[in-house]
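Q: Please design a sequence for this.
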């Protein structure tokens, strides 16, 4: 093979691999935490009549009432929103947001975005923020 043919072959292989790998798409779901398995770094979220088991990513962010928290701070029964990535049959939790009630009322979160994720618009007493 000449140098040109090797270059074309290598380019085609890279292009095919890029198409196969594709973009990483993240999804979001919400529900109640039904079980926590700290020995496996996973938790079960009940969502609309089905249970989803999530593995916590090594660089996952856990926010409880807008404050950075640890996996051990999660409780069964917490209402949670989970941003996750599907890797085959594995659901990899990247962000877990929990809003716990404080004095019987939902807590106000002052966090509007997490590094690396899109910024969501929120409503405050002063009006909408971006």
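A: Design:
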């Amino acid at each position: 093979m000449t140098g040109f043919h090797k270059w074309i072959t290598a380019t085609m292989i890279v292009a095919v691999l890029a198409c196969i790998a594709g973009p990483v798409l993240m999804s979001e779901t919400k529900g109640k935490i039904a079980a926590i398995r700290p020995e496996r770094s996973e938790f079960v979220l009940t969502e609309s009549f089905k249970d989803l088991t999530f593995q916590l990513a090594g660089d996952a962010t856990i926010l409880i009432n807008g404050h950075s928290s640890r996996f051990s701070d999660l409780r069964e029964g917490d209402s949670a929103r989970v941003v996750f990535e599907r890797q085959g049959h594995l659901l990899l939790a990247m962000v877990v947001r929990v809003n716990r009630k404080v004095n019987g009322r939902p807590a106000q979160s002052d966090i509007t975005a997490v590094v690396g994720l899109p910024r969501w618009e929120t409503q405050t007493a002063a009006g909408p923020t971006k």
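Q: Thanks. Anything notable?
A: The first helix runs from residue 3 to 21. Confidence is low (pLDDT under 50) at residues 109-127.
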